[in-house]
Structures are given as C-alpha cells and as structure tokens.
Amino acid sequence: EERQKILDWVSPINFFARQDEIFSKRQADTGTWLLENDDFKKWKSGEEKMLWCSGIPGAGKTVLAATVMHHLRKEFIRDVGLAIVYCNYKDQEIQTPVNLLSGILRQLYDRISLSENIKSLYRQHIERKTRPTISEISELLSAEMKRFSKIFVIVDALDECPEKDHCRGFFFNQLQAFQPTTHLMITSRPEIAPTVEFRRLEIVASKADLDRYIDGRIFISSRLKDLLHEEEDRRRIKEAVTENTDGMFLLAQIHMTSLATAISRKELLETLSNLTKDLGTAYEKTLERIDNQEPPERTLAWRVLGWISHALRPLSMRELQEALAIEQGSTSIEEDALVNANIITSVCAGLIILDGNTQIVRLVHYTAQQYLE
C-alpha cells in the first residue's frame, strides 16, 4: 500500500495505461517488419544507442512504439530498465519536463524495489506539501538508472511535446544526459530534426501490415462480411484501400470505417471507387457522412465533437455523457438523460475512440483536431 502511494505521488501521468490502450488496438502480427529491421536490431543490441523514427502524421508511429515496448518487455528480464513516454497534444499542460521524467522514473520502479532515496524524498515533500523539483527528479533518476545493466527509453511523438518555455528541448537534453547506459528511441514527424547524431529510420505503413489490418477490420464487421460475396471482393478492397493510404495507417482506418457503414453492395463499391489519398478530403467526406444522418444523430455528433475538441483536458465517457445531458436552467443531471456510449461513438463515424481501460474519449488522431479547428 505504501509502495503504491509513493508511485502515485512520483508521477501524475500513467504511461502504463496508455501503453495497454494502444497495444490492445494493434492488429495482430503488425509491426514485425520494424522488429526485424537491421537498424532496430543494432539499437536493441547496444551497437547504436539512439534511434530516430520519423514518419508523416498517421503513419502508425505510436502503435509501432507500443509494439516495440511490448517486445522489449518480453525480451528482457528485470535487470533491464524499460520506460515509454507518450507525448500528446491534448495533455500539454501536464506534460512538463519534470512530469515526463517522473513518468520514466515511475516505470523503472516497476522492475526494482523502492530505494531509500525515493522514500526519503517522498517523506520530505509530503511533510512540506510540496512537489519535487526537476533537479531532484533528475538526480534520483540518474541514481536509480545505475541499478540496471542497461535501460531502454522510448519517446513517442516528440513533436507533440510542447515547445512552450523550451519544454521539448529541455526534456530531450535531459534524456541525452543519461547516456551511455540508456538506449533512446524517438518517434516524430519528419519536420522535427534531431540535434545530435541518431540512426535514422523512416516509418511508413507497410503493405503487409495494411493487408493484415484490412483483414482484421473485415473479420469484425458483420456488415462487410455480408456484402463481400467472393474472395475477389476482398482483394479489391485491399488493393483500393492500400493504393489510397499514401503510407498512412490513419487513412486506412478512415477508409475501412467508411466502407463498414455501406448498407448495400452498390454503395460499398461506390465508396470504394471514391477513396482518396488526401487526409483532409477523407475528413471532409467523414463529416459529410455525419451531416447525412438523421437530425438527432447529426446534432449529437457535432455536440460530441465540439466537447472533445474544445475541452481543456481529455474527458472520460461519463464526463462527456453528463456534459451532453446538461440542459439550460437545470441544476441536476438525470441518469435517464445520459446518452448511451455506443450511440455516442457510432454517430461520430469513426472520428472518436474510447479507451476501454481508462474510459477516456479521444479524437482518432491529432490531425482530426487540427482539421476541426
């Protein structure tokens, strides 16, 4: 009980929950190309200490980062430290350098006992009702890292780490200071360039992974299975979707959601022939589908998107349901007025996702936030 109290105090950010959420949504057997890549193997073996994975928005970098962490957890025993940081445009207020470093520290304690150093720091600050400084966390992190034979740290979406007050640069410099025992892997958009020498690796949605993803989406969609009469139909979907992804898993996701809403074979084939490689156009078509719904569903969808895109922090499904149930002039919320969670997600045509573990509702990607703005 004391251990859990100290861990919760160490970091307000739980990257374990985010890791589990992302990996649970991964299509089985995807991402193996990265694990078999020579540059990745050199990084894992220690021949290369830093690996920079860049890719366009929606290329699947975050899922690959989760795949790598899952692989490392299975590969290495307790004397190897593991930590992952998921930077997120929606969490910029709490993703300060001290909180991100604290998040790494908390994950390292998953594999080692709590030291007297952390217990002492905890007692001091609890007594004073203060939080540790970044210097204290950095010093403690350096000391605890020495308890491992080596350490792997993955930072996903460094480009989404806030630039305000030089947060991104400061955090990155702190990570570099933990060399040489730390193996550092960064994922980012191409326009964010490393300031030091990194082994570079480009991330794109591979054809094999796209095929597996499309097969998976067809398998879980009873409507698609009903409309696809022959193996040739499945081949046509794979061909058309893959040709119109432009290296983006996100586009494949949007396209498959669009196809899964078809109510006839004719509509399915028409949708298939009108797929686009342009992400903005794909979002535009998704919003058109929302607008083509019946008035109650259309109104609900726009209210949901409004709440999620303008909220100062990520909302839980319960919070979103209560926000939608608020009526002008009322002082309470009736339980019967809460909109069903499945209806909320379905009317938004794939633009929102619900984390089954934390029950947090998010837009499908940060590019959706940019488009809605």
Automatic annotation (TrEMBL):
Q: Which residues form the GPI inositol-deacylase winged helix domain?
A: 298-372
| Nephrocystin 3-like N-terminal domain ranges (all copies) | 29-189
> Which superkingdom heads the taxonomic lineage of this protein's source?
Eukaryota
InterPro entries to which the protein is assigned, alphabetical:
GPIID_WHD, NPHP3-like_N, P-loop_NTPase
Which SUPFAM superfamilies does the record cross-reference, listed alphabetically? P-loop containing nucleoside triphosphate hydrolases
UniProt keyword Iron, yes or no: no
What keyword terms does UniProt attach to this protein? Repeat
Q: Work out whether the entry's keyword set contains Repeat.
A: yes
* Listed Gene3D superfamilies: P-loop containing nucleotide triphosphate hydrolases
Protein known as: Uncharacterized protein
